[in-house]
Design a protein that fits this description.
Blueprint: H1 2-5, E1 27-35, E2 38-44, H2 53-61, E3 71-76, E4 83-89, E5 94-95, H3 99-111, E6 119-124, E7 127-136, E8 139-146, E9 169-173, E10 176-184, E11 188-193, H4 202-210, E12 220-228, E13 231-238, E14 242-244, H5 248-260, E15 269-274, E16 277-283, E17 288-293, E18 295-303
């Protein structure tokens, strides 16, 4: 019973080489950062890699027994870009992309002189992303990320439905029918437009979407209220983390879905309001561009 409650599983438990046992715990420095309220614990792994990030994500993400975060992000060396980021959810699963996290990686690298330029590239599991940094008093303040093109093909989202794209399609999730629009922004997203999002039982509905057999790799689901043609309000349930204050790739998916459903206009800035703040998204033929903040909360040390 204790094992089941521990949140550890076969994919986030470290395998130990008994011939190379550590003599004791090591001290790792970290930085807590947040973008639009989406908080992660960041480790500089360029010269000092972490052996078991999956298990460390489970331990440190706990808001009562750990540091408290939506997950951890590793900043690593790259052969394709200025740096590489790896992101692990609170359950230890590795994500392909994190829109709020990549902005904080850019700020960390610029403020700590790891990358000495205002335009940089960051490698992710969903490809290399281009970053532009606006500074204030010599520190990164506002960051724009070229998130690449939105993927609408069901096989690439992935979602087990037929057609060239899934736009406002009625599907049964749990015991209720929803109009869903599916978009991949490096991570799979399912967008549901609703009259109100304030009072939905996201703790009950979110897992029904995440665990639906329609989504073989799970899914992030966004519940969205249309305020006007330039403003959207959303709540998000992220696979592996539950409800979070913000999701950068989710905000991009929501803006794309709003344009595809005729609620917003292409090539125009759309403000997406999240629990943690606002993001500006622009959906164009060239790609999806996201602009938002990146904030350092504090530095710390942890025994691992």
């Amino acid at each position: 019973a204790n094992s089941l409650l521990s949140r550890y599983s076969e994919f986030n438990t470290e395998l130990i080489d008994i011939n190379r046992l550590r003599e004791g715990r090591s001290i790792r420095k970290f930085t807590k950062m947040q973008g639009t309220g989406n908080d992660y614990v960041y480790f500089n792994c360029i010269d000092n890699p972490i052996v078991n990030p999956e298990g460390l994500a489970v331990r440190l993400s706990d808001r009562h027994l750990g540091v408290g975060a939506d997950g951890i992000i590793l900043i690593c060396d790259s052969q394709k870009a200025d740096v590489r980021m790896r992101m692990f959810n609170a359950d230890g699963s590795e994500g392909k992309m994190c829109g709020n996290g990549i902005r904080c990686v850019a700020k960390y690298c610029y403020d700590n002189a790891i990358v000495n330029k205002k335009e940089m590239t960051i490698e992710t599991k969903s490809g290399v992303k281009k970053i532009k940094i606006a500074t204030q008093n010599g520190m990164a303040k506002s960051i724009t990320v070229d998130m690449g093109k939105a993927e609408l093909s069901p096989a690439k989202v992935p979602v087990k439905l037929a057609g060239d794209s899934i736009i406002s399609k009625k599907c049964k999730i749990g015991d209720k029918e929803y109009d869903i629009t599916c978009v991949s922004m490096g991570n799979p997203h399912c967008v549901v437009f609703m009259p109100h999002v304030e009072n939905i039982d996201i703790e009950h509905i979110g897992p029904q979407f995440e665990e639906s057999p329609l989504f073989p790799e799970g899914v992030n689901v966004e519940f969205v209220k249309i305020v006007d043609r330039h403003t959207l309000k959303m709540r998000v349930w992220e696979r592996g983390s539950g409800e979070t204050w913000a999701c950068g790739t989710g905000a991009c998916a929501v803006a794309v879905a709003a344009v595809l459903n005729g609620h917003c206009d292409k090539n125009k800035d759309v403000t997406v309001k999240l629990l943690g703040g606002d993001l500006k998204i622009r959906y164009t033929d060239e790609g999806v561009f996201m602009t938002g903040d990146a904030v350092k909360v504090y530095d710390g040390e942890v025994e691992v």
